[in-house]
Amino acid sequence: MEIQINEKIKNIIPALTKEEFELLEKSIITEGCRDALIVWNGILIDGHNRYNICKKHQIDFKYIEKEFDSIEDVKDWIIVNQLSRRNLTKEQRQYLIGLRYRNEKNKHGTNRYTNKRAQNEPSKTYNKIADEENVSKETVKRAEKFANAIDKLTETCGNKIKDKILNREVKASQKDVQKLINFDTEKQKEIINEVVENNLSISKAIKNIKVKAQRKKRVEKLDKPYIIFKVDKKYNIIYADPPWKYPAPKEFYGQDVQFHYNTMSISELKELPVKEISKDDCVLYLWATAPLLDVAIELLKTWGFKYKSCLVWDKVKHNMGFYSSVRHEILLIGGRGQSAPTDKKYANQTDSVYSEPRQEHSKKPLFYYEMIEKMHPYKTEKIELFARQKKEGWDSWGKEVR
Predict the structure, then answer these.
(1) Strand partners, 197
(2) Of 377, 373, 375, 369, the residue nearest 240 (C-alpha)
(3) What CATH number should be reported for the domain whose range is 235-397?
(4) What pLDDT sits at residue 122?
(5) Where is 284: in which H helix or E strand?
(6) Angle at CA 113, nearest 5°, toward 112 and 114?
(7) How far apart (Å, rounded) are the C-alpha atoms in residues 36 and 249?
(8) At what angle do helices 159-166 and 90-108 cross, to 10 degrees?
(9) How far apart are CA 129 and CA 55, in angstroms?
(10) What is 15-76 written as a DSSP string?
(11) Nearest in space to 320 (alpha carbons), one of 246, 264, 252
């Protein structure tokens, strides 16, 4: 009899790992095919790996024909037979329980009633399967969702990823698989490629692709450099948060700022006409990071100011940095002419350290605007350089507010 292979039936059976297949092949070559294959109406329903090995090496095999009323009964038998295997992974077992539940529901239309128990309570399909497989009925329901998700994913990306998930070659929880099938077909394939090429879990691959997309979007927004500002006005308060360009790779400083905004080198920052827009009596508040503190003080002097003091923003949360976890940022104070605070009482009471958890990248606390206004109540000509949004009472210059 010519044995036929039905792909739908074959795909019910969890694939062996490479190592398991090699051990089986070695055993059959050495000892022959000791277990008979099982067929129904000429279709192979058990022994696919043994059949392929025997054909490859021209080894004789025996087969047994079984009788079933329908293809659904065949599927039931295969699933129950596979569930008896000792070497099933958790995922394989979950998948098979889900298939069994789905298959029995399809056979009977809906959840069906079976024999009455001692207390004369009806027992639904999932109760029957839960009892026989020694799991909870909630586990049976979750298993069906998992099986449905795996099959849907297989339709999109093929059996390879299904086998990898069920054999635990890819780390994927039920939630991961469910999340994956919610993406469109192209996104699913992109995620699977990320999983396979970089040996990642599904959740990590989804995260990586999301980060790449965010970076791409940021880069597209940052295609234009800063334009030197032209202001016909002079100011007695200048507040600046420069987009510092780090001289070493991000791994060195723990920074990745180029994906957040256009950066500027120290030479480009020095060319800005800050001196030209500063009044003779002017105070500069300049944000600086710890690795570039010396550069920031140099810039302050180039812009025509003398270093006076500094304040510290305690960001509270961990932040990757150089030499240490940098949880603070420094606000340098530079003066030109009369720059001291005119509200002496407030200035003397202002703590040099202010704590507030950091939020989105580079966003500074509103506290510092209020502090500057209170310290210099008579300096009313104020401008913020590299601003992201306009603030009442301040002029603003920055790529995002032009």
Answers:
(1) none
(2) 369
(3) 3.40.50.150
(4) 33
(5) strand 278-288
(6) 115
(7) 63
(8) 120
(9) 37
(10) PPPHHHHHHHHHHHHHH---SPEEEETTEEEE-HHHHHHHHHHT----EEE---SSHHHHHH
(11) 252
Q: What is the CA 345 to chain-centroid distance, rounded?
A: 49
Of 127, 193, 143, the residue nearest 164 (C-alpha): 193
- Beta strands 37-40 and 63-65 are parallel
Retrieve residue 252's tokens.
């060195």
Percent of the chain exceeding pLDDT 90 equals: 48
CB atoms within 10 A of CB 346: 14
- In 3D space, the residue among 130, 1, 9, 128 whose CA is nearest the CA of residue 68 turns out to be 9
* Residue 387: both structure tokens together: 């601003």
Q: How many CA atoms are closer than 13 Å to the CA of 173, on its beta-carbon side?
A: 5
Task: Give the pTM.
Answer: 0.55
Place of tokens 């093929």: 158
Tokens of 354: 């202010």
Better pLDDT: 198 or 281: 281
**How is residue 282 written in tokens?**
């002017």
Q: What is the pLDDT of residues 5-62, one digit of tens each?
A: 999 899 999 999 899 999 999 999 999 999 999 999 999 999 999 999 999 999 999 9
Chain-centre distance for alpha carbon 179: 12
* Closest residue by Cα to residue 162 from 140, 142, 146: 146
Helix (H) or strand (E) run with residue 40 in it: strand 37-40
The 3-state DSSP class for residue 266 equals: helix
What three-state secondary structure class fits 171? coil
Q: How many residues does the chain have?
A: 402
Q: Note the pLDDT tens digit of each residue in 385-395.
A: 988 888 899 99
Question: In sequence order, what are the residues at sequence separation of 6 or more whose Cβ sits closer than 8 angstroms to the Cβ of residue 171?
Answer: 201, 202, 203
Please report how the helices 48-57 and 18-31 are oriented relative to each other, as an axis angle in degrees rounded to 10.
60
For the chain, the structural domain boundaries read: 7-172, 235-397
Owner of token pair 């800063």: 226
SS (H, E, C) 135-186: CCHHHHHHHHHHHHHHHHHHHHHCHHHHHHHHCCCCCCCHHHHHHHHCCCHH
Q: Are 384 and 402 in contact (CB under 8 A)?
A: no
Triad 124, 134, 92: Cα angle to 5°:
100
Rounded Cα–Cα distance for residues 11 and 402 (Å):
60
